[in-house]
Write a structure and sequence with these properties.
It is elongated, with a radius of gyration of 28 Å. It is 16% helix and 43% strand. It folds into two domains: 94 residues, Beta Barrel (Lipocalin); 160 residues, Jelly Rolls (Sandwich). The strands form three sheets. It has an eight-stranded antiparallel β-barrel. Strands 11, 12, 13, 14, 15, 16, 17 and 18 form an eight-stranded antiparallel sheet that branches. A three-stranded antiparallel sheet has the order 9-10-19. It has four helices and 19 strands.
Length: 296
């Protein structure tokens, strides 16, 4: 009987040891391991798919620079695949081959590729995810942003906001609603849309810069971003104009996302000739465009 108890006790110990071993074995992660996979859109319609891997942590003495052990695997839109080890960098994350003839550098939402000291993939920004119904992507590699917009919107890349008066014009790009959306309604398809506007080298980024000194500014937190927000409404000769500005700072500029809604007073139309436009649906679409915006 005593031998049976000893056998059962040994069996329990062996089972427990086996469970501990295999549970710890499963928890181990082979190095290097994938920590992130990002697709970038670059100047001249080029793209980079980057897979970032983390390597083994190497102990260093206090005060010494950490030793980079990560690596990146990149797939270029020209079909090439490159694998580069991480190197020391004072800013951002830098990867290079042995003779540094190829360097891939990522910082925040931006990246670029150097080949023999020439930027072959430049102005790259993280490709915005499609929140639904926004298949097209616009890249501004000068200001440093990418944004999605509906397929049937018109793009005015030479857009200027001029309502603040002479010498106060604000440059940007505007995405104008499709006539199909406005057909049969009191909404104007001529200028209703979303514009992304930029004011450079400004210390206090706020919505008042885009709407004028009298704008009532408030802070709003949405979709993980903190915006400076302001709105306005005006009327003139049967026309109605509503604006919203959502301003957010970047490294070197202040970006304002402006909703501009132009419509005619519905009471000025013969009854049942024109229907009221769906303002909620329009704002929802404008919000999606704003949410998709990615800046460097």
């Amino acid at each position: 009987m005593k031998q049976n108890y000893i056998f059962i006790l040994l069996l329990i110990i062996l089972i427990g040891a086996g469970i501990w071993y295999f549970s710890n074995k499963e928890g181990e992660t082979e190095l290097p391991y994938l920590i992130n996979k990002i697709e970038y859109i670059c100047k001249d319609d080029k793209t980079i798919e980057a897979s970032y891997f983390e390597g083994e942590l190497i102990p260093v003495e206090p005060g010494e620079m950490p030793i980079p052990t990560g690596q990146v695997k990149i797939l270029l839109s020209d079909g090439r695949e490159l694998e580069l080890p991480q190197t020391i960098s004072a800013s951002g994350v830098r990867y290079a081959n042995d003779d540094e003839s190829i360097i891939f550098w990522s910082k925040g939402n931006g990246a670029f590729l150097l080949e023999n000291d020439e930027e072959t993939y430049s102005g790259c920004i993280v490709l915005p995810a499609d929140p639904g119904g926004l298949p097209n992507v616009y890249l501004d590699n000068i200001t440093g942003f990418a944004v999605r917009y509906p397929a049937d919107y018109r793009v005015d890349a030479a857009y200027q906001y001029t309502a603040l008066g002479p010498e106060k014009e604000i440059n940007g790009v505007k995405f104008i609603v499709s006539p199909d959306f406005t057909e049969g309604t009191n909404l104007s398809s001529a200028d209703t849309g979303v514009s992304i506007e930029t004011i450079s080298e400004i210390e206090n980024c706020n919505a008042g810069l885009f709407l004028g000194e009298n704008a009532e500014i408030e802070e709003k937190e949405e979709n993980g971003n903190i915006y400076s927000f302001a709105s306005s409404a005006e009327a003139a000769v049967g026309n109605r104009y509503e604006e919203q500005v959502w301003a957010i700072p970047t490294i070197h500029s202040c970006i304002g996302v402006r909703y501009f809604i132009h419509y005619m007073a519905i009471e000025n139309y013969p009854e049942e000739e024109v229907r009221e436009f769906d303002k909620d649906a329009l704002i929802e679409q404008f919000d999606k465009i704003r949410y998709s915006l990615i800046t460097q």
